[in-house]
């Protein structure tokens, strides 16, 4: 289906789908693709018909989608009428894992580093200096903006996708020379000792070493396994 054909269908269904947000449409497409084996099993009578989406959805799927994306069952049917050819993957294997509508991981894994990009790029949670002793804040009452980003590649260890390369960015304060990292900033005290000050609350991504990051869910799994070992 091309874009023009899709727009014509959506225009025809504008009254029914007028209250549906773009986010709900994207969720519908993603969830419907995941449910393709179930839809095909209930609605298609032979394997040769797997390349073509059925005109209607099973009642259980309609009820699930309506609840999952917070629309009415009638709107689910309207979305399927408009988007089934977009959602449906021809020639899919019902005995294999389902294929997501958009596989963002593979293109990034294959191409991103060639363009100095990564699947994830992490920055400090602030764009201004947080130190109350920063000269800019003391003299003007304004927070100094952070500049001079420095980037490096690291490995992020996750629960669902294992480890993959990411970019970690540090920012610097020109006024007090503090450096802001993903989980903390480093400042120099009056006695010339460097000190780390961690942000709160507990971060979703934990930087254990310069080139090693861990997803919080993975850390919590390790902790639970240690407790129950």
From TrEMBL:
Entry-linked InterPro entries: CxC5
Span of domain CxC5 like cysteine cluster associated with KDZ: 120-229
Coiled coil: none
Keywords, alphabetical: Signal
Record's signal peptide: 1-18
Keyword Endoplasmic reticulum: no
Keyword Disulfide bond among UniProt keywords: no
Protein's name in the database: CxC5 like cysteine cluster associated with KDZ domain-containing protein
């Amino acid at each position: 289906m091309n874009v023009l054909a899709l727009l014509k269908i959506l225009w025809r269904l504008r009254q029914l789908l007028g209250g549906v947000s773009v986010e709900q449409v994207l969720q519908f497409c993603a969830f419907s693709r995941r449910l393709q084996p179930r839809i095909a099993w209930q609605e298609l009578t032979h394997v040769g018909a797997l390349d073509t989406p059925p005109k209607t959805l099973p009642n259980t799927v309609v009820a699930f989608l309506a609840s999952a994306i917070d629309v009415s069952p009638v709107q689910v049917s309207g979305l399927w009428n408009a988007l089934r050819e977009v959602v449906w993957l021809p020639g899919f294997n019902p005995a294999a894992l389902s294929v997501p509508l958009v596989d963002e991981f593979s293109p990034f894994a294959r191409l991103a580093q060639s363009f100095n990009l990564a699947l994830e790029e992490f920055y400090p949670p602030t764009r201004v200096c947080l130190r109350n002793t920063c000269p800019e804040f003391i003299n003007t009452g304004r927070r100094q903006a952070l500049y001079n980003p420095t980037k490096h590649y690291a490995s992020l260890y996750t629960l669902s996708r294992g480890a993959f390369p990411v970019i970690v960015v540090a920012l610097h304060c020109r006024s007090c020379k503090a450096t802001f990292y993903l989980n903390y900033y480093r400042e120099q005290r009056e006695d010339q000792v460097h000190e780390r000050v961690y942000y709160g609350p507990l971060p979703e991504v934990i930087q254990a070493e310069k080139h090693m990051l861990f997803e919080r869910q993975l850390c919590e799994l390790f902790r639970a396994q240690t407790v129950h070992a």
